[in-house]
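Support reply, case 0932

Customer input (verbatim):
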Amino acid sequence: MPFKPEIEKLSLGDSYQMASKRLDNLWKRLNRDPTMKFLYSEFLREYKNLNHMEEITNCNLSNDDGYFLPHQGVLRPSSITTKLRVVFDASAKTTTGYSLNALLCAGGVLQDDLFSILTRFRKHQYAFTADISKMFRQIEINPSQRKYQKILWKEGPEENVKVFALKTVTYGTTSAPFLATRTLQQLAKDERENFPIASKVLLEDFYMDDCLSGASDINQFMALKKELGELLLRGGMTLHKWCSSASSESDLYPFNYCGKQSTVKTLGMMWNNCEDAFLFDISTSSTTEFTKRDVLSQIARLFDPLGLLGPVISKAKIFLLRLWLLQIDWSQKLPSDIAQEWSSFIASLSYVKNIKIPRFVLRPNPKEIILHGFSDASEKAYGAVIYLQSVCDSSDNNTFLLCSKSRVAPIKSVTIPRLELAACLLLAQLTRKVLNALKLKIDQVLLRTDSTIALSWIDTPPHLLKTFVSNRVAQKQELTKEYHWSHITSKNNPADLLSRGIDAQFLANNQFWFQGPDSFNSLNSETELNQSDKNYLSEFKSKDLVCLTVKTSALFDDVICISNNFQKLIRIISLIFRFINKCKKNSKECGAPSKTERQNAEIYILREVQARTFGNEIHSLEQCGNVTPNSRLKSLSPFLDSQGILRVGGRLRNSILPYNSKHPILLPAKHKVTDMIIQYYHKIQFHSGSQALLYNIRQKFWPLNGRNLCRKIVHSCVTCFIANPKISSQKMGDLPEDRVNPNFVFNSVGIDFAGPFYIKTKLRKRDPPTKIYVCIIICLSTKAIHLELVSDLSSEALIAALKRFMARRGKCRKILSDNATNFVGTKNEINRLFKLMEQQDALFQNFLSEEEITWSHIPPRAPYHGGLWEVGVKSFKFYFKRVVSNTCLTYEEFLTILIQIEGLLNSRPLTPLSSEVEDLEILTPGHFLIGRPITAIPEPLMVELNDNRLNRWQLLTKKVQTIWKHWSKNYLNNLQQRHKWMFKKDNIKIGDMV
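Our regenerated output:
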């Protein structure tokens, strides 16, 4: 058994449970049908008696790596020999989802197809059919692989289940047909010398286990019968179901004979061996309501591999095509008029029982054999039909229908000439297949069509035609290059019946179809094609007339598109000029271009550029020596030098500057070469700025609008952008709610750390300094700052700092801090700080939860969200560095300085200072803390004042309200303006430099 190469990677799994369940279901059916039960038991008993299977008594079901084949019975009451056959299901899946068939190779096709065998069957005067008895079961399987062909069976419903192994090739497995046919071919090759005639029949006239063959005379027939039987016996096989067209009986039928008056069915065709004719019996549906599915089902029953009922099948196909064009669904009932038409067609199928087509298509000992082929097409279908003519002395009609083939036209509209060409190609393909199948000496092959256009295309070289026609003409010429094509009139063309289709009642006695035209010798028509026919000419390729003109500037335009490098462009032009010189002067220069060659190439490039952009100015200078008054170059006083280059005249003629500096070469503002020159200078000047770039370029060139051009080149330079990237920004967002609404001081705060700083724990010089940090807490609404000393970056130290802060300032509701990804520091201390700010441990989380404080981080990569506390850190460091500098303070000294700085920061003005005389006091964070700036001079005591001036509580309330009014009126209005990021910009997209 040929397993697939990847069999080792796959596992069949367990199949016992599946096979056991299938056996139980089988016995339920057998118990309901005693006849089937008897036949089933007899079949498997015969299987065992013939030693085609053996019982396995020591099968280990728990650790089995084989396969159990489920089986079921198929009843065939019409069968002569076997009424019931047990079939095996090798496609049943196991626990791993694989089946035996999934792991087996199918093998290749070794025998001829059905069409070829039936066609060849019709050439024998004496024909026979036979069948190899139990062919699969005559071929043994390697004993090591029988474990894959085990079955379960029991003699009765109450009996014990037994395990059997099938010892032969089993039908139902994927590889069985290949193994059987390969065995037959090997037998024929091994016994070729002993049985030459039978070996050829075994190789060519067998379709699986069915044999359809014969001989041209009775002696050959007898020899073939004897040889074939003996050859198969060498392989342990026998023929049965023998049926022959020979007139003798007893001498010719030593095998299992079917009977003289017998109509047998072989390869799907009904053959009456007594009359030696093919018969047809088509089953039809009795339903009166049809759907498209019913129509297709009925067409599938019209089994006719040789196309002997071609016109009837064509009509059925055309009807199905009509349903497709009407877009009728599969389950939709046909409209009444269409259903009535199909009902009439089905009723006419009963007439096919009256059709008898001779099997033998030749005459004994013909002088000449001629193959006639016809093709035709209509807008609905096209087809081809082939006849075989035996030329004899007698005047009888010796022409017989051999085969036909038809196809419906595509749903997409196709012209009739194209369909006629497709019919010709179909005829060519059918002719080639028939000639290969018959293996006869055909004296003439005459092919005909009634389309003059298709006939003219056939003789046309394919390269002159359009693709559709060209491909088919090329195939046709390859298939029938040695055969003759001619024209025939439509009334004499039997293929016309294929293209239109007819009912079976009109085909039964239609001799025009079964025997062809009356006289084949007078069929050819001399009709000539009208060469001006539109359909004929439309399939020829159009020929465009091309007029070649010389364009002197074409070379330069093509070359500048090759590169964006000015020096490379000069090198290419110089090499082109060198090639031209070599062709003219037989020069042998080689290597890199010389200095002179590069200078000549540069002059050529500049002249071509100026000629395209300053053509009018150059023409004016050549004619009258000056440019026109309306010229854009008039302020530069241009002139042409000795090489024809346009230069700046200017006002520096008397200076001692070099010639190129006094009279630089003019360049247009919008030209690729100008951009290439500026890019070149920008690169060799190490990507200098636009001002320096323009200065260096003007030492030789004068590009118009040069300043803007240089800026554009510098701005688009990737190297410059990488060296000085511009940070992408978007419009500044609105301030958050905590910044713009009145609230308790320090209710919403931002927190950050500064440090480390170093203090002395003792005044002795040798003692090392200790690191400390400053925790900066800032109120989001009033900018009030609170500074706390922190001994380290642990959770305990941070919790202690927050407790001290809340004990002095009150409990806060919300704390904001930086995100660790905002920092770029690399020191260990900074890294520890980031971890503390981003990854609070369980102790810190519990503290926040108990105090009902919300801790939030600003978004990653957005430090501007924490600008408020970043400014606080900056302000603290401003005072600290100026007061402390590098002095190492003690703890008390450091704390004193820290608290003083806190007071200064809380006394800074929140709004700009006013020059108005009335504005005697400014708003500071201290107003929200103590009602005045922290550093304000103490006011006189008001204790001695009378209370009747103003109630003290009302006085305090008024004071607070005044402060918040001042905050809302002046401070908030100052936050209204955006000082940067003022415009909305497009978001970054693919292709932008960032």
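We compared this against your earlier run and they match. Two observations from our side: The first helix runs from residue 16 to 32. The first strand starts at residue 53 and ends at 56. Please reopen the case if you see a mismatch on your end.
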